[in-house]
Amino acid sequence: MTKNKVNAKATNKDAKGSHASVNGLEMYYEIHGTGKPLVLLHGGLGVIGMFAQLLPALAESRQVIAVELEAHGRTAHLDRPMSFEQMADDIAALIKQLGLNQADLFGYSLGGGVALHTAIRHPDVVRKLVVVSATYKSDGWYPELRAGMRSINAEAAKAWVGSPMHQAYVSVAPKPEDWPTLVTKMGQLVGQEYDWSEAVSALKTPTMIVVGDADGVRTAHAVEFFELLGGGKRDGGWDGSGMSNARLAILPATTHYNIFSSPALAAVVIPFLDAPTPEAK
Questions:
Q1: Residue 268 located in a structural domain
Q2: Cα–Cα distance for residue pair 250/256, rounded to 1 Å
Q3: DSSP string over 151-176
Q4: Contact of 251 with 213, CB cutoff 8 Å
Q5: Domain that holds residue 161
Q6: Within a domain: residue 10?
Q7: In this structure, what CATH number is given to the domain that contains residue 91?
Q8: pLDDT for 259-274, tens place per residue?
Q9: How far apart are CA 191 and CA 150, in angstroms?
Q10: Phi-psi region at 132: left, alpha or beta (left = phi > 0; alpha = psi -120 to 50)
C-alpha cells in the first residue's frame, strides 16, 4: 500500500502529495477533488504542474489522481530503460494500490502513450481513455519532430539547462542532478520506431483522441487513430445509433505546446468522461 494516506477530499488548493511503491518504483502522485477517479499523466520531461490550467476544471467533479512518471519530477529514476509497457504496468499497479476497481485515464503526449498502453495491457482497470497529442505509430509525428526526438541526448540536456522544462524539474526533483539521466532516457524512448496498430484496433475501451490543428501529431494520423478505434465508419444517424464508442476532437488554433493549457481541452473532455459508458460497437 501507499506510504502515506492521502485526503481524498483534497482540493487543488490543499491537495497533498504521496508516494506509492509500485514495481520497485516510488511513484509520486497527488489527489485533487472528489468523484469518479481520473488518472492524469503529463508529457515528456514534464511534471504535474504543467496541468495548472486544466486540473482545477477536472477536479470540480472528479477525483483527479495526478501522477509523475518514472524519472520525472518527484518520482526518482530506476536503473533501467524507460518503456511505455513498464510505465503502463506502474499506472495499473497504482490504480490497484489505491483500492480502485477502475479509473479513467487522461494522458498528454508521453502520458498519452502510457495511458494507451495501460488500456491495452490492463483493460480491466480502465473505464474510459483520453489520449491527447499522442500517436499510435512513430510516423504519426511530423518528420521534423521525429528528427528532433532522435536528437534528444545528454548534450541536449546541457543545452536545456535553464529552460522552463529544466526549471520545473529541478524545483521538485529529489536529485536535480539527475536531469541529464532523465533527458537521455527520454531520448532513447521516444527515438524508437513503433507501430501499435494491431493492439489499438483490438481496444474496446471507450476512447477520445484529442489533437490541436497545429499539433506535432499529423491531423491525418489523428483521423486514422480514430478510425482504428472504430470511429468514422458510417453516418451516425438521427438518433446517434451509428456512432462508435470512440470520439475525435481537433482543437482550433492549438499546438502541441499549448494544448494542455487550452480552455477548450476541458470543454471537450469533461462531457466525454461524464457521458454514460457506451456499448462497444
A1: yes
A2: 12
A3: T-SHHHHHHTTTSHHHHHHHTT-S-G
A4: yes
A5: 17-233+243-274
A6: no
A7: 3.40.50.1820
A8: 999 999 999 999 999 9
A9: 4
A10: beta
Name residues whose C-beta falls within 8 Å of residue 180's C-beta, 6 or more positions apart in sequence: 154, 157, 158
Nine cell digits for residue 210: 484529442
Classify residue 281: in a domain, yes or no: no
Q: Indicate the number of domains in the chain.
A: 1
pLDDT tens-digit series, residues 82-112: 999 999 999 999 999 999 999 999 999 999 9
Instruction: Indicate whether 238 belongs to any domain.
Output: no
b/e string for 251-278 if b means 16 or more Cβ within 10 A? beebebeebbebeebbebbbebbeeeee
Burial class of residue 241 in the structure, from the number of CB atoms within 10 Å of its CB (0-12 exposed, 13-18 middle, 19+ buried): exposed
Which segments of 23-163 does DSSP mark as H helices, in order?
Answer: 55-59, 84-97, 110-121, 143-150, 154-159
Tell me the residue type at 207: T
pTM score above 0.90: yes
Q: For residue 99, what is its C-alpha cell?
A: 483500492
